[in-house]
Model the fold of this input.
Amino acid sequence: MENYKKIQDKHEVKKPVFKNCLKAFLIGGIICLIGQCITAFYIHFFDFTEETAGNPTVATLIFLTMLATGFGVYDRLAQIAGAGTAVPVTGFGNAVISSAIEHRTEGYVLGVGSNMLKLAGPVIVYGVFSAFIIGLIKAIFLKLGGM
Done:
């Protein structure tokens, strides 16, 4: 057993952890910078404030991610950046459209419709449920005279 462990350690490919973290940080930062530019665009050219520009910015980022995934660009970027593309909201858009593309041959209802949210569905449910609980706690505090 000990000999096997030595042979395994000798032939194991070392992962460049620092390099991978740096790439994820840079690509994730660029995605966030693009999001900030989109927010500035909505504030400057449309009648949005800093508070109201967030929703259209998120929708635009998800739309752009879905287009990039459909054309195969986002998947190549994700192979380079790793978690840098999975963590921002663009990872959500990629998960939804990838499932839809994968199951499109099974039809629109049984393929795309039933499989599109398999990966992203639990995230949506968790977000909605968490927002409900936080809203309920805030309402109770406000009713009791707090905050």
